[in-house]
Amino acid sequence: MKRKICxxxxxxxxxxxxxxxxEKIQQNQQLELQVVVTGTHLTAVYGYTYREVEESGFRxxxxxxxxxxxxxxxxVAKSTxxxxxxxxxxxxxxxxxxxxxxxxxxxxxxxxxxxxxxAIPIAHIHGGESTEGAYDEAIRHSITKxxxxxxxxxxxxxxxxxxxGEDPKRVFNVGSMAADAIKHMPLLSKHELEExxxxxxxxxxxxxxxxxxxxxxxxxxxxxxxxxxxxxxTLDDTTxxxxxxxxxxxxxxxxxxxxxxxxxxINAHSFTSLGQLRYLSCMAVVDGVVGNSSSGMIEAPILxxxxxxxxxxxxxRITTESIINCEATAYKIETxxxxxxSDDFRKNxxxxxxxxxxxxxxxxxxxxxxxxxxxIRLKKQFFDMR
Length: 386
What we know:
The chain is α/β, with parallel strands linked by helices. The protein contains 17 helices and 13 strands. Helices cover 44% and strands 16% of the residues. The strands form two sheets. It has a seven-stranded parallel sheet, with helices on both faces. Strands 10-9-8-11-12-13 form a six-stranded parallel sheet, with helices on both faces.
């Protein structure tokens, strides 16, 4: 009998990281793929991106509706509770042998909580990382403690998962899922992007994504966004490509600010979501990535594109020489932009020093999933490092 592996995806970006793994599971004779979509996949605001899952050849077994229209702190908390109820129903119906979860979103926290209480083993991808400016940090480490298998992106992250008391034999460094995706994706050319996005690249171009800093107040995230836009407004001959923030609390306020900015600048363009292919293709051809998204810390260095990482949201992640960290003030961002766009900086762009970020391990993950004993031991003994 095939082992039923249930993969949960809550956004287009996350699906892009999981897609190759899902294909590998689907192709494995010992495994049966189950797919549950949730989060922004099921919202009109983000373009009902569950359709991309279907268009990629996957059958969706369950749709878990959980996002309330209000993305306030209260709204996110209530959405998380609703998600837990709905995931419990979905998992009971599907009866998976193991649930695969990636990352640290509150939608994924709902799925992890439901699976844990239903005694369904969890495999967690991209644990052990650190983002001190967002509540994702606490969610990520919480899922680590609920999970039974861990697939991390670097040795530093593996050590952190073990530090949390997880058995080293269950923690696998498989590299970045982003690296895996990039290696197997033919990216679009600049001309193809111009046709697809219906814009023209100027002398210079930037890809900008700024998410709410969820451990700060919404007013603080809004202030930082205004500082960023003030700095960007000083640039000449530069195409600005904005992708809208994710569904965290305060995102609608940031989206409105971006929309108002774009309406009055002919060089600025905004997209609710570019999709993985167009997003990575843009990242490969622009002169830099600006904002506070994890993609600027992970995907951009792999593509040899410089990054300005603003504020504290990604504080704690592995950094490289291609990443310029700066405070969220217009003056500091302007200074960082001058460095980013300088000839010297661009000439010295290199891939990350850590080869761990390049391995990309969908095949390795599938090998582990297929070789597990039929009865995965749910009781975990705390691994004491002393």
